[in-house]
Amino acid sequence: MQKIILSRTDNIGDVVLTLPMAGAIKKQIPDSQVFFIGKAYTKPIVESSIFIDKFFDRAEVLQEPDLLRSIGATAIVHVFPDKAIANLAKKLKIPHRIGTSHRVFHWLTCNHLPNIGRKNSHLHEAQLNLKLLASLKLKSDYELSEIADLYGMSRIAPLDVTLAKLIHSHKFNLILHPKSKGSAREWYLKNYDSLIKSLDTNTFECFITGTETEGEKIRQEMPMIFERAKDLTGQLSLSQLISFINACDGLVACSTGPLHIAAALGKKAIGLFPPIRPMHPARWQAIGKKAQTLCIEKYCEDCRKNIECACIQSISPLQVKQALLVKINE
C-alpha cells in the first residue's frame, strides 16, 4: 500500500488549495493512504476532507519524529518548502521525497526535484500543487474545472445550536469577510457597508466574520455596518467557521482563506481581486462550481509597494450586488 504524506505548513487558503492533491491521489490510487502535515490551527480544514486519512501537527512531529516514523510512509511531497520537515523526512529515510528544485535545501534532502517555479507561473496555485504529483507518476495536469471535485470537504462538524438559530430558512444567508490579516488587497469597509445597505432585507440575511482584532477595527472604522449585518467577528473557531459557511448560501471576500473554504464547500463565493501579479485571479481565484471572481480587466503595477489598491476599489458595490442577484437565481 502506498502511504503518501502531503506537507503544507502555511496558511488556511494555501491548505485548502492543497486538498485537491489528496483527492487526485485517492482517485488514481484508491487503496492508498494520504497523510497531511500542517500547522495545528489548520487541522479543522484538513480533517474536513474525506481524502485525508490523518493529520499531523508540524510542531508535534518535529518534537516526536516517531509519530511520523510509525506510519511507514512511502513518499512525502513538500508542497510548501519547509527545511525542518525536509530534514526530518530524509532522516526517517522516506523512500520518495519530493520537493521543488527551486529550494537549495531540497537538493540536500529530496530525491525527486521537479522543476516547478511559482513566482512567474501562469498557472493557478492549485494547479501548481498538483504538478508535484508527476514525481509519483500520477496525472498532474488539471483544468480548473476538474479541481472543484477534488477537495472532498464533506466531513463537516454539526453547526452549534446557537449558530444554527441565526440561519434564516427563507433568505439568502450571506457572509461578508472584509479583512485578510493584511495578506490581500482589501475592498474598503465603506464598500461593504454600501453593499449591505443596498440588499433587500427580505431577501438577504447578512453576517460579518473575522478575527476579534479585525472586528475591533471594523467597529472603530465603520460601526454602522452592523446596523444590518450580524457581528460574528471573534466568535467562531475555525471549525465553527467552516460549519457556518457550510450552512450559509454565499460569501463575499477578497483573497482570503474563508473565500477558498466557501468555494470548496460548493457555496456561491464571490472573490474580489486586483489584477496585479501574483495576487491576480489567475493565480489565486476561488475554485468551485459556484464560485465567481470580480476583477478589473487591465494590466496594473501601481500598488505593488502600496497596500492601497485603486483597482480593487474600482469594483463597485452595485457590481457585487448584481453578481449576488444572479447567484440567487442559479
TrEMBL record:
Key words of the record: Glycosyltransferase, Transferase
BP GO terms, sorted:
lipopolysaccharide core region biosynthetic process
* Molecular-function annotations in GO: ADP-heptose-lipopolysaccharide heptosyltransferase activity
Q: Carries keyword S-adenosyl-L-methionine? A: no
Which cellular component terms (GO) are annotated to the entry? cytosol
Is Cytoplasm one of the keywords? no
Against Pfam families, the record matches this protein to: Glyco_transf_9
Source species, domain of life = Bacteria
Q: What is this protein called?
A: ADP-heptose:LPS heptosyltransferase
Q: What is the lineage of its organism?
A: Bacteria, Pseudomonadati, Bacteroidota, Cytophagia, Cytophagales
